[in-house]
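Q: I'm writing a short explainer about Kinesin-like protein for a general audience and would like to include a description of its predicted shape. Could you first generate the structure from this sequence?
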Amino acid sequence: MYIFTDNVFAPTSSTKKVYEEGAKDVALSSLSGINATIFAYGQTGSGKTFTMRGITENAIRDIYEYTKNTPERDFTMKVSGLEIYNETVIDLLNRDSGPLRILDDPELVEEVAKDVQRQVGRTSLNDKSSRSHQIIRLTIQSSLRESPGHMKSFIASLNLVDLAGSERISQANTSGARLKEGSHINRSLLTLATVIRNLSSGRPCHIPYRDSKLTRILQSSLGGNARTAIICTISPALSQVEQTRNTLIFATSAKEVINNAQVNMVHSEKKLVRQLQMQVARLEEELQSPESSSTSCLRTLLSEKEFKVLQVITLQSYSSQQ
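A: Of course. Here's the predicted structure. Afterward I'll give you a sentence or two in plain language.
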């Protein structure tokens, strides 16, 4: 028996309808300081990429519309594009930067990427199959001055995730580079399924977040401080019944996972300044690291540091005038 979920959509449903009824509320919670993640799971050719493209476009449009109509709050938004390809994390905007490291830090601050750069390859299930996981992340910070010397600051991330296909290697009929890609994809999706299954069991057990780059990046979205919407896509073809069954089992387990979403809020300017100063110190350490020696990496880190320093100076200057 499969336990369903909040909504079931027909093949004729538009991505606008899927967004409005299945993802909009989660996406817009990021404007209130609540971390949010939306991702699509399913086999190749079942509509994941098409669905996530529509959801991403609608979510970004609504977020910008909200910021335009809320003049009493100051918004800062940063957008990053990440690709996980063969267990390597790549900055989609800057291919020359080399593989990215994953730090135990809640912020990732790259810039937006184009979907055309994503790794694709031909399989027997799809002529232009996505052979990687793609994550578009919006980091949204907003400030509201309630009274002189007292400011509320909210910060949250919205992850929009298009996973690679979950089909078996034998069904994809791949070889060579495609076979290697499939092995890495299956490993990361198996880890994701294990994380979901262990979280949904209701028993204390090890959660293997660190067994793949995908689950490590999405750790806070899986049983952590975030609201998460999962869209499971299936094929109506009789030949794909086994993969459809596996997807429904995944959906049933995912429905049982309990997250603990909280508003990420900083109440005072002094506390916000301290947080920014800590981030500047972390960036200074990164600049001294041998792994940061490439020109593109140094340029990115210096740009981020300058932005954080400017935020600190602005807040300190504003506070001294009150």
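A: For your explainer, you could say: Confidence is low (pLDDT under 50) at residues 105-129.
Q: Perfect, that's easy to follow.
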